[in-house]
Amino acid sequence: MATCENEMGMHAHRKLKLLVVDDDPNTRALLQDALEIRGAEVLASASVREAADAFRTWQPDLLISDIGMPVDDGYELIRRLRDAPTAPGQRTPVIACTSHAAADDRARALDAGFDALIAKPIDLDLLVDTIVHFTTVGASGGRSDAAGDAVASLRAAGSGAGGRGRSAPDS
């Protein structure tokens, strides 16, 4: 396999694996297309149940989840993920995406176990910057060097986003 570097980073023969969870098919398609164009391998799920199954079998590097979904919501998903046993240093970063993004919503999401919250409509540049931040942090916390290498060129793409003065992710 040839090494190919692009925004989301296939480097060292490995693509960054992202799991997207949203009940809205248009949002799923938008995120999947936008992140695949940037070089990630993306699996999209429509429900918490589907996502929990995919998470166990596919083992993504990062998860992006809507909060407000029918039946089980994003808080139920994060509870399931954070309660599941994991190897030391293998805590998968999870980014919440929601239209409910006031300060108290953000605090609730972070308290529940999400690593960051991005308001809808989703700013794709901010999402990419946040993915880079957490996959780089995660790579030093027990992930393989390939996982860290998989985002190397994504950082360069984020720096060309116009420097809009957005806040850094929580970590």
Set down the secondary structure blueprint.
Elements (H helix, E strand, L loop, with lengths): L9 E2 L2 E2 L1 E5 L3 H13 L3 E5 L2 H11 L3 E5 L7 H10 L10 E5 L4 H10 L3 E4 L4 H17 L4 H5 L2 H8 L12
Parallel strand pairs: 3-4, 3-5, 5-6, 6-7
Antiparallel strand pairs: 1-2
Helix pairs in contact: 2-3, 5-7
Question: What would your notes on this structure say?
Answer:
- 43% of the residues lie in helices and 16% in strands.
- The strands form two sheets. Strands 4-3-5-6-7 form a five-stranded parallel beta sheet, with helices on both faces. A two-stranded antiparallel ribbon has the order 1-2.
- It is globular and about 35 Å long.
- The relative contact order is 0.18.
List keywords for this structure.
alpha/beta, 7 helices, 5-stranded parallel beta sheet, 171 residues, disordered N terminus, two-stranded antiparallel ribbon, globular, 7 strands
Q: Which sequence of strands runs across the widest sheet?
A: 4-3-5-6-7
Structural class: alpha/beta
Whole-angstrom Rg: 15 Å
Give a count of the beta strands, DSSP E runs of length 2 or more: 7
Sketch the topology as an H/E string, one letter per element.
EEEHEHEHEHEHHH
* Residue fraction in strands: 15-25%
* Stretches with pLDDT under 50, minimum 5 residues: 1-5, 140-144, 155-168
Average pLDDT confidence is: 81
**Span from first to last CA?**
34 Å
Query: How is the biggest beta sheet arranged?
Result: 5 strands, parallel
Oligomer: single chain
Count up the helices. Answer: 7
> Which geometry do the CA atoms define?
globular
**Percent of residues in helices:** 40-55%
